[in-house]
Specification:
444 residues, alpha+beta, six-stranded mixed β-sheet, 14 helices, 12 strands
Length: 444
């Protein structure tokens, strides 16, 4: 550090120190004068570490807690000012002011409240007890709800985790904020998910799944739970386990994959119609704005657009990540009529060209979130496709159920974590998995 920078830093610290002294003087002058208190033994039963053994010996504490129900921190509102309440939360932070008053920030389910511990009311030892509590300690307390004269800026909703933009700005300003890298966060995931940003991510994920379920129930669908492990070639739904060798920002070995299966009456586009409704509901519920009618491109049309943009793409091959992103400049779209060669054996070939299939994929921000198709319901055609794909028909005997009659049908599967990642514009799918599992991680 240069002499100029060191001098500037010292001046800043001195200015901060003077500011704190002024705050302490102001607070001290506003408190009632009192003589130094000697420790009153009557306070000793009001605090302490709670274990089954200690709780049994603290009759006054046990009686006080037993006659009160817990009030959620989120329910501490002005309508109950003056009421005595019992709350439980984690120690988010604490700060001693003027040596006789302690501010303790408690956090519960993403909400925070400032608790004031005054020596004049509770005694010196209780203040010391609170001061030595480590961050994240779980605390139960009884107190009176009050409304501060000035709005607090360090509680509920206002101390959110820093964004990437904030961190980058701090670096440019020469005051770099602390940055915790992803592997460190995932290695300590139990603590990491307590941050306001992560709490928000998983609340959004919950709402996306609820919207998915409620929309389908409103359309007359029935929710079922199917086996995820099978002896033959197929795909499961809900929780999906996959030996994924792609170590990328968007792949996991275990993910939530809610899916749909439905009867087709006339054309497999009926499935895409349903997809449009699901996606619109998700986006509407999360305050995103996209076209109400999802754009549809055939695979061939997408290939042509890429060629016109100077991209070299196999017309009968699958799209790689970069090609998908290039097409993703349209923001939200459905690609359909994929080549049969890149689809599972049970995908129905197009009636007018068997090189293509009745299949589709849905993209947001240039990345796939959903894959679907019409399935082959004719047993003979299914066996023919299986042999062509090199699959032993004995391993797909469960499909013999189609010999008892099956209507034209199809469906799709959704990558829940990937949907949330893209809706929230996050840079890695591991941020939307509570405890991610990939090719390099099985713990925590």
């Amino acid at each position: 550090m240069s002499k100029k920078a060191a001098k500037k830093r010292a001046a800043k610290l001195e200015k901060l120190s003077r500011k704190r002294e002024r705050e302490e003087d102001t607070l001290s002058s506003s408190l009632p004068l009192s003589l130094p208190l000697e420790e009153d033994e009557s306070f000793s039963s009001n605090y302490g570490d709670v274990t089954p053994k200690s709780a049994a010996g603290r009759s006054s504490w046990r009686e006080a807690v037993a006659r009160k129900e817990f009030t959620d921190v989120s329910n501490l509102v002005k309508e109950i000012v003056g009421s005595e309440v019992s709350i439980r939360g984690r120690v988010h932070n604490h700060r001693l002011v003027a040596k006789i008053i302690l501010f303790v920030i408690l956090r519960e389910s993403g909400f925070t409240v400032q608790c004031v511990v005054e020596e004049a009311r509770v005694g010196t030892s209780m203040v010391k007890f609170f001061k030595q509590l480590s961050h994240e300690s779980v605390v139960e307390l009884i107190g009176v709800v009050s409304l501060p004269k000035k709005p607090l800026t360090g509680t509920t909703q206002q101390d959110a985790a820093r964004s990437e933009a904030d961190i980058e700005k701090s670096v440019k300003d020469g005051k770099p904020a602390a940055r915790v890298l992803q592997d460190t966060r995932l290695n300590n995931r139990v603590l990491d998910i307590r941050t306001p940003a992560n709490q928000a991510i998983f609340r959004i994920q919950c709402q996306v799944q609820i919207a998915f379920r409620e929309f389908l129930l409103s359309k007359g669908f029935l929710e079922i739970h199917t086996p995820k492990l099978m002896a033959g070639s197929s795909e499961g739904g809900s929780a999906v386990f996959r030996a994924e060798d792609s170590f990328t920002h968007r792949h996991l070995c275990e993910f939530e994959g809610p899916g749909v299966e439905m009867e087709i009456r006339m054309h497999y586009s009926e499935i895409m119609d349903l997809v449009g409704g699901v996606v619109t509901v998700h986006i509407h519920n999360n305050r995103r704005k996209f076209l109400p009618q999802t754009l549809r491109l055939t695979f061939a049309e997408g290939i042509q657009m890429l060629k016109e943009a100077g991209e070299e793409v196999d017309p009968l091959g699958d799209l790689n990540t970069e090609s998908e992103r290039k097409l993703g400049q349209l923001v939200l779209k459905v690609n359909h009529r994929y080549p049969s060669a890149v689809r599972p054996f049970y995908t129905m070939p197009c009636e007018n060209d068997s090189n293509y299939s009745n299949s589709f994929e849905v993209f947001i921000r240039g990345e796939e979130i959903m894959s679907g198709a019409q399935s082959i319901h004719d047993p003979e055609l299914l066996e023919k496709r299986a042999r062509k794909c090199g699959i032993d028909v004995k391993t797909i005997s469960t499909y013999d159920a189609f010999r008892y009659g099956a209507p034209p049908h199809g469906g799709y599967g959704v990558g829940l974590e990937r949907v949330v990642m893209l809706l929230c514009a996050l840079n890695n799918i591991r941020k939307t998995s509570l405890f991610p599992r990939d090719s390099q991680r099985l713990a925590p």
